[in-house]
Design brief:
mainly alpha, single chain, 2 domains
């Protein structure tokens, strides 16, 4: 191998290493994006679980309609709809904690500050 071809080989390797270095950088960036996404999904998942448990507790609290067990007990019709104020508070809190409550992006993390869909939804409810 003469000097010139050795030099040529080195230049080729240098080029390859440079390309690999770039690829590593891109992979690192992709990895960071995935980690962030994963973290957001974990938060979102936890939040939705909490919401679900809360909803289940609310449903359990509500008395179930029983067959008449005595003539002394009067059966009043329970409202099947949750109190409007309560539902609104939950949604407002969810929004404050950084989540979308609009139909468009419901449950996902708000990454760009205020969402006009969410705000108009809140205004309509309030
Ligand atoms: Zn929204």
């Amino acid at each position: 191998m003469n000097k010139q071809s050795m030099f040529h080989q080195l230049a080729l390797i240098e080029e390859k290493v440079g390309g690999l270095y770039q690829e590593i950088g891109q992979l690192k960036e992709g990895m960071i994006t995935l980690l962030e996404e994963n973290k957001n999904l974990l938060i979102e998942n936890q939040h939705l679980r909490e919401r679900l448990q809360q909803r289940e507790r609310e449903l359990e609290k509500r008395p179930k309609p029983k067959a008449a067990s005595g003539s002394s007990s009067r059966t009043k019709k329970e409202k099947t709809q949750p109190a409007v104020g309560e539902g609104y508070d939950n949604l407002a809190r969810l929004y404050q904690e950084g989540f979308h409550i609009c139909n468009v992006h419901y449950g996902s993390l708000r990454t760009d500050g205020d969402c006009l869909f969410c705000l108009s939804f809140l205004n309509k409810q309030g």
